[in-house]
Amino acid sequence: MTAPEVLEPQALEPQALEPQARVLVPLTHPRDGVPDVVTDERTLMRAAEAIANGTGPVGVDAERASGYRYGQRAYLVQLRREGSGSWLIDPIACPDLSPVGEAIGDAEWILHAATQDLPCLAEVGMRPTALFDTELGGRLAGLPRVGLGAMVEHYLGLQLAKEHSAVDWSDRPLPEPWLRYAALDVEVLGDLRDAVDAELTAQGKAGWAAEEFTHLLDFTGPEPRTDPWRRTSGMHKVRGRRGLAIVRELWLWRDGVAQERDTSPGRVLPDAAISEIAIANQRAARAPRTVTVSEPRLARSVRRHQSAILEVVAHALDLPESDLPVLALPPSGPPPPKAWADRDPVAAARLARARELLGAVSDELAVPVENLLTPDLLRRYLWEGPAAPTTAEVAEGLSAMGARRWQTTITAPLVSLACSENPPA
Q1: Which PROSITE patterns match (predicted)?
Q2: Which of 63, 254, 342, 362 has the fewest CB atoms below 10 angstroms from its CB?
């Protein structure tokens, strides 16, 4: 097979993928000091004006309160642009940040792990028209570690403290060390963007990155799941439709309480407690008088909500058979790969060969195989697609499923080759 032109980036220097052996400089204070948090409309408009008068791309970041609050809303938004300095904005005090979004206009946003921040920024009226994702750029460049701290060390030689990354950003007032951390996070984005862009260009991958960044502009968040309660940790040990009903009803009750109190569902009742209660009562003939759990760390939540839990379990045990959940949802895609050999040995052989070919090219290009083509998309195509597709047919099919042009240029010939070969005996 003749390798397509896109398969020929410039040769990578061995040291390009390894952290540099150098002394790191701790980054402890923003160059302009820690800015005051914007908490009123007048100051917000002043921030918007300053950002509009700045030049170049805009570093953007958001802090959420994952594990503390319900949902993924932003509790602090950080921005920095050349000529305007850094701004820290409280989106709780100023819930409409559309003036800031309008001030940025068509300028490029610089984000790190854009899919984490884009949905919560859209909720406050900020949507990019162009962006550069430094984390995704690092993946395409072949870096083994793509966290912000690791990439700042690799490219800039700076050590960025990350001890406040998992704090409760809904707390008010926000402590000065947290604000310092937040300002530093956005301060490094401009220099990091330039370094990543230079490496992508040197490796011949800048066009690939541009396609990925354009694709991200339409990202609105993960697709909602059918029956999200089925992902409760530990429920694989629950047996029977009645047990599943207990899980479902407890999950729905917990979600309602968490939403009403604006707290993380796991703080109301951990998954492990839901599964254990369901297992203990899934064959009960009558409602229990008390519920207990074996692990001390779960007992406090159960005791606190004892009456409500008993009521929910009683309701689940009382449901008619017609209202019980089915044991499993009908399949909405290919079966798990481990089942392919029994259900379709030819397709299983194609999948194994495609994985082998993609893995080899992934190593050659120093790009994670999941960035070349997501495993789900590969499985869907091989399970649903034609038996012996041409390269053009594979490219068309993968594109229809959402693959980008650079991905299909690289992977379509390989998938076609995997489908054309005889399966191993």
Answers
A1: HRDC
A2: 342
